[in-house]
Amino acid sequence: MKNTVADILIEALPYIQKFSGKTVVIKYGGHAMVDEELKTKFSKDIILLKTIGINPVVVHGGGPQINKALKAMGITSTFIKGMRYTDDATMDVVEMVLGGKVNKDVVSRINLEGGRAVGLTGKDAGLILAEKMTIYHQEDETKPPEIIDPGMVGDVSRVNPEIIHTLSDQGFIPIIAPVGVGTKGETYNINADVVAARIASALSAERLILVTDVDGVLDSDKTLISSLNEQQARQMIRDSRISGGMIPKVECGLSALNAGVKKAHIINGKIAHAVLLELFTDSGIGTQLFAKKFNN
Ligand SMILES: Nc1ncnc2c1ncn2[C@@H]1O[C@H](COP(=O)(O)OP(=O)(O)O)[C@@H](O)[C@H]1O
Ligand SMILES: CC(=O)N[C@@H](CCC(=O)OP(=O)(O)O)C(=O)O
User: Are 160 and 81 a contacting pair, CB within 8 Å?
Assistant: First the structure.
């Protein structure tokens, strides 16, 4: 029976040994930034990882925080397949909220607890080069898909990870806002799951952990699906059992796995110390995704 503090620490030992010196990319969703206590616990988890020799890289979202700012300014917002339609006025607010308030809040909380976090957007050191995303919509499979213009929504065209390596090697924790830059210096709003997956792929991360506000991928009866392969996930998207913001999350997890990231998980950030529980316990929490070639 594992009930002493020592037993719990020892359960973590093989994982600590395995992950030491490796990179773990954590996507911290806006819906998981709930209250002060949870935010502090998340900050401590990240510092603990760094302290034991793991390289955490945090990519944060901020969807609800953007909604609040847009509402206060009287700008209405709509979503197409989980992506925010981003006209120029919306883009200004998105950059201000993600690169400003949300990024600095995550950074300063980690620093307050004794870590050394540094905030970046994709513009810093050319970290995230972006291009305009094209969204296809197909209602009738006998007809060609309709092309939807999402405004300044970006797709990642290239990640230049040097700045991440430089910071991580010097003991800093990079905190990345999902704003990208185009070849002409234009600013793009990129879904944070997309950025996290592409950064994890560029860093050949050991783990991609997507932290959200639900236990993982839920079935129609709301039960947690603890492991999900690519085929099952695509079927769930087709029959709308996976919808909204869960679509980019699942797609991104699968694409990171196909690009060489070892494991991808979706977990609930409302569970205290969710990141530690996922990484350092035998049972883990949440949904683990499996790519086609690893369907076992
Ligand atoms: N099958 C599903 N399982 C779990 N959540 C789902 C599913 N389908 C849609 N969702 C929705 O996706 C949301 C998570 O996406 P999102 O709100 O974008 O999170 P975040 O802000 O953390 O990126 C859930 O809160 C839920 O409303
Ligand atoms: C294109 C697009 O939709 N970008 C997102 C960026 C923030 C984000 O992804 O935040 P969460 O992870 O908290 O949802 C947005 O504007 O809301």
Answer: no
Q: Mean pLDDT throughout 122-145? A: 92
When pLDDT is cut at 50, 70 and 90, the band that residue 142 belongs to is: confident
SS3 label, residue 140: coil
Say if ligand 2 is within 6 A of residue 286 CB: no
Please give the domain boundaries of the chain with CATH numbers for all domains.
Answer: 5-294 (3.40.1160.10)
154 lines ligand 2 (CB under 6 A): no
pLDDT score, position 293 = 58
- DSSP category for residue 286: S
Lowest mean pLDDT among 8-12, 38-42, 65-69, 208-212: 8-12
Please give the model's pTM, rounded to 2 decimal places: 0.94
Q: How much is the ipTM here? A: 0.96
Task: Please state, in angstroms and rounded to a whole number, the distance separating the CA atoms of residues 36 and 117.
Answer: 18
Ligand 1 centroid distance, CA of 215 (Å):
10
C-alpha torsion angle, residues 45, 49, 55, 59 (rounded to 10): -10
Distance 148 CA to ligand 1 centre (A): 22
* Residue 208 scores a pLDDT above 60: yes
Does residue 62 line the site of ligand 2, with CB under 6 A?
yes
Instruction: Supply 282's token pair.
Output: 């035998």
Task: Judge contact between 16 and 52, C-beta under 8 A.
Answer: yes
Residues 100 and 123 sit within 8 Å (Cβ to Cβ): no
The CA 249 to ligand 1 mean position distance, Å, reads: 8
